[in-house]
Amino acid sequence: MSQERNLGLDVARAVAITLVLVSHIVPRFEGITPLQRTILDYYGAVGVELFFSLSGFLIGQQIIDFAAKPSPPALATFWFRRWMRTLPLYYFMLVAVSVSTSRWDVREFFFLQNFDASANRQPVLGVAWSLAMEEWFYLGFPVLVYVASVLFRRRSAAVVTAITAVAVIVACSAARLLAYGYAPSDPTFHIHPLMRLDCAAYGVLAACIVRSNAVSPAAIRQFIPAGMTAVAIVMIILTALAAAMTFPAFWPASGMVHWGRWYLPFHWTAINVVSAVFVLLIAHVRWDRNPSVIKQSVTTTSRLSYSIYLTHAYVVMLMFPALAAAVGSMAAAIIALACTFAASAVTYAAIERPFLQIRDAVLLRLRSARLTPRPAQGG
């Protein structure tokens, strides 16, 4: 893959944030039925899962590099790269919301909020549940890769990383199956960091396919039409099931009271597989004929997506009710979206970008220090 910005991945990221935005705004419109709300909520969750696969695909490249030369300093460097990308804006938003609402929860400062199974606890930074899952993945997965690189030292870095990813996926899927009886009584089961430690592993597997040349780029491009069709069909089926399950009569009529024991634990596995396949395919699409204005819009949305994700819920929550009463739901949605993009541009310029520049400068200095030969010691 090219080191330059990949438009396909930008498109996937724009799709993911659009699904999240739509799921949080459109249900506020008047006249939305419970079934429509269910479908919108479902696709909001799909958008988050797509973010997981995107993250795994991109960060997976770094994990493979780490697996090639594993060491404690390399592990620390990996975590530094990751945390300088995610933590500054996260802590800014967490403190800002905590101050404005006078609600503080120390667990959210250490990404422990997803371990609480209480349905009555309202998180301070509600949208950060997904970030907590990712942080636990990127804290634990490289350590497992480190161990695997020792056990399989004769294997290539991509193979070692793939073995680790498959092991995590199998372990988490089995854990969800074994814990099925507990899941319905726990509203946070699907976001528990241990049960969902595989959240980004599917994207990492896709990265391993690319880096190992297990499938050539040409072969992947040939598979794009059939693969995208399969992705669409599977998502239609999953959406139909999610909608049907809201009707009590569907369970006995379909026999889901029996086969649901297998479907529900593996539901997230299915979405993650579909998301990873989508990411792998769209990363190989050629976009040469697209107008530059469209490319720029997609790239900008992609670049701001993290800021949009962390800020949009609070902009919408503060603005939408009053705006909808004054100008109607559609106009309120447009204004709220415009304000969300404006706020995201500000937080990106003031927080995200400066910390990314600091990170890159530190990494460049460390790289230069390693490459600079030390002067010979006098005898």
TrEMBL record:
Highest rank taxon of the organism: Bacteria
Keywords for the protein's UniProt record, in alphabetical order: Acyltransferase, Membrane, Transferase, Transmembrane, Transmembrane helix
GO molecular function: acyltransferase activity, transferring groups other than amino-acyl groups
InterPro entries: Acyl_transf_3_dom, Acyltransferase_3
Single GO cellular component term: membrane
Domain Acyltransferase residues, every copy: 7-348
Chain ranges passing through the membrane: 89-106, 136-152, 159-182, 194-214, 226-250, 262-283, 304-324, 330-351
GO biological process: polysaccharide biosynthetic process
Name of the protein described by the UniProt record: Acyltransferase
Organism this protein belongs to: Azorhizobium oxalatiphilum
